Amino acid sequence: MKVTWQFRDQPLVSTGLLAGGDLTKMLVKKLLQREDFELRQLTGVASTDAIAITGVSLPWLPGVSYFGVDPLAPQLLIPTHLTPSVSIELLERKIQFSNGKGIYIIDPTQRLIFPLAKARPLDRSKLEAIVA
Predict the structure, then answer these.
(1) What is the reported pLDDT for 95?
(2) Fewer Cβ in 10 A, N or C end of the chain?
(3) Is 120 a member of any domain?
C-alpha cells in the first residue's frame, strides 16, 4: 500500500515523541531535570538508536518529532501535523496485520514504524544509564 502524507488542517495534540542520534541524549538530560513523580507520568522505550516517550506533559526539544493519536486509529501515533493519503483506519489495520497487535509510532520522514509495546514508566536510573 502506497501512502503519502499531507499537512492536516488542525494538528493533533502531542502525546508522543521520537528522538534519535544526538537528540536522544539531549532529550534524556532534559527529562532528568524533572522530579521522579513527573517522570513516572511518562512512558518510554528505547532502541539502540532512538527513544520514544509518551504522555501528556512531553518536554519540548527542537528537532524532536512529535506525534498524536487520530481518534479513528487509536493504536497509531502519527505526526501531529500530517495526515495519510489513505484511510487512517485502513492504515492502522495494515500495520497491525503486518507487525502484530500493539501501539506504534509512525514516522513517515524516517520511514519508521516504532513499536511501543515495551514502553514502561520512566525510571531515573535507566535514563541516567543512557547519558552515562
Answers:
(1) 97
(2) C
(3) yes
